[in-house]
Write a structure and sequence with these properties.
39% helix; single chain; 10-stranded mixed β-sheet; alpha/beta; 337 residues
Length: 337
């Protein structure tokens, strides 16, 4: 534990140092890395929200309609590097946070459980909205980010004006995850079973970047990303809590790790598979190599205005592989199309 605590202190010191020249109190400011096409995010800010100090991008007009873009694993905010300017041009205020365990987002206390369960991430998003004084926002994401958007929309629909969700309805439950899948389905989740072992924990910690690159390649087999693109995002995995959050997330899904009791009530609600009532567009790439449900399996989970779009030639990291299609979905679900 002392070594972990020391790593966290060094990380927090590094984030604090970035804030040294900031004049935009109470936010820490640095410069997000540019994308391979030359697009820059602009200032990366920090704000205290719930149990976290969250690193996030805030782009576009301060009085614009708010869209919160939520990344997945093993990705980071740069999945939206090409989406953000498209939405800013359309007049949106674009918020892109690092999830817990990624980038400059860090826990305020060493004593806080490093918890990756779905409700924890949902309430992180709500806490961020509260900290920024945002009452309602469009939520859009993929992978963990889509699940987080689903959970917020289900638990507090008054905070979510509309949603764009890659791979549709991803709310899960520990009870449902006890049921075995056919062999090919289980094979697709190989990393989840690997993470359930101490060997997997040690392996992810030792080979984190190699592991992430393998997931990028298998989840998006048609995407020809270069080393610079991968390295830009992989820097987010240097967060000292990254491994703990990822391992806990996948073990919690299988009922192999405890969550926090304060999330028992919302998790019980989520386990019931609640219908999402907010306007929603779901997206899927026809080259998605990651486990994902068929659209017909979740259509009934959306009772509001709804559309599904299949994006050809695109894998799992849809906003980075097809930024225009993702941005168009946001614009359309907002009623601006």
């Amino acid at each position: 534990m002392p070594l972990i605590a020391d790593a966290r202190r060094r990380f927090i010191h590094k984030v604090g140092a970035l804030a040294g020249a900031a004049t935009m109190s109470p936010f820490a400011v640095t410069r997000a890395m540019s994308s391979s096409t030359g697009v820059t995010f602009g200032p990366l800010r920090q704000v205290r929200a719930g149990a976290l100090d969250i690193g996030y991008i805030d782009a576009g007009p301060i009085d614009g309609q708010v869209i919160i873009l939520l990344h997945g694993w093993p990705y980071d905010i740069h999945s939206f590097a090409e989406v953000s300017p498209l939405l800013v041009k359309a007049g949106f205020r674009v918020i892109i946070p690092y999830l817990r365990g990624y980038g400059t987002t860090h826990f305020l206390s060493d004593a806080t459980k490093r918890n990756g369960q779905q409700a924890a991430l949902a309430f992180d998003a709500i806490a961020l909205m509260d900290a920024l004084g945002i009452q309602r926002a469009i939520l859009a994401g993929f992978d963990w980010g889509a699940r987080t958007a689903n959970c917020v929309a289900a638990l507090q629909p008054e905070r979510c004006s509309a949603m764009v969700s890659v791979s549709g309805y991803l709310i899960g439950s520990q009870a449902a995850n006890k049921a075995p899948l056919p062999p090919r389905g289980e094979l697709a989740w190989w990393y989840q079973f690997y993470f359930a072992t101490e060997r997997g924990h040690a392996g992810y910690e030792k080979y984190c970047r190699d592991f992430a690159k393998l997931i990028w390649q298998t989840a998006s087999p048609t995407w020809r990303f270069d080393d610079a693109t991968f390295d830009r995002s992989a820097a987010a995995f240097d967060n000292p809590d990254h491994v703990a959050i990822v391992i806990h997330n996948y073990r919690w899904r299988l009922g192999l790790a405890e969550g926090e009791t304060r999330y028992d009530e919302p998790e019980n609600r989520l386990a019931a598979g609640p219908v999402i009532t907010v306007p929603t567009i779901t997206l899927e790439g026809d080259a998605n190599g990651a486990p994902h449900p068929e659209p017909a399996a979740y259509r009934a989970k959306f009772s509001g205005r709804y559309a599904h779009r299949l994006i050809p030639g695109v894998g799992h990291n849809l906003p980075q592989e097809a930024p225009q299609a993702f941005a168009d979905a946001v614009i359309d679900v907002a009623g601006r199309g």
